[in-house]
Each structure stands twice: as structure tokens, then as C-alpha cells.
Amino acid sequence: MWPFARKLVVDDETAAWHVDNFAWLIRQFGGAAGLARSKLVLPMPGYFIAEGEKDHAFALRIFDQINPARPTIPAASSSLDDAWSGALADSG
User: Fold this and answer.
1) Domain extents for the chain?
2) CA 79 to CA 22: how far, in whole Å?
3) Which of 13, 14, 21, 56 is spaced 20 to 30 A from 7 at the CA atom?
4) At residue 60, does pLDDT exceed 60?
């Protein structure tokens, strides 16, 4: 018999949260088949195209490559919420 007691990695509430989020992810990708067709984004050097950007500018460049449909965040914008609000207003 193993001398150590089996211990849960996360509590029940956290486990349910993970399951709910994964179910949402599968729905967003069009089910298991859609998820299987999606491209896996790997956080590896050389995976993303960069032209010398650093810090925040590099993060924005990565986001543009992952999701080019996201709204561009103007330099004067105080938050991502402001950018989304502006993009929604422009599209409607």
C-alpha cells in the first residue's frame, strides 16, 4: 500500500469551472470536429513573426497574428473595454 494519502489537485468548484470553460471552448470551435481542425498556437521562439517589437508592442503583434479580427487598441485608449466599445459602435 502506498504510504501517502491521495489528495485532490483542485477543489470541486474549481474542477467544475474548468469543465464549464472547456465545454464553452468546444462550442465556440463548432464541436469536437471544429476543435480538431483548429490550429494549435505554440508559445515558442520563431513561431510568431516579429520585427523587433518589445514588451506591449510585441504582445499586440502576437494578438494580431492569433486573432486578426480583434479591434486595434488605440494608443490613447485606457483599456481593452474602450477599444471593444468603439469597435462595436463602428460595426453597428
Assistant:
1) 9-38, 41-92
2) 27
3) 21
4) yes
CA atoms of 52 and 71, how far apart (whole Å): 22
For residue 16, the model assigns a pLDDT of: 93
Length of the chain: 92
CA quadruple 78, 82, 87, 88: dihedral, nearest 10: 180
CB atoms within 10 A of CB 40: 4
Average pLDDT, the chain: 75
pLDDT recorded at residue 82: 54
CA-closest candidate to residue 22, choices 12, 31, 9: 31
Q: How far is the C-alpha of 25 from the C-alpha of 35, rounded, in Å? A: 8
CA 40 from centre of chain? 12
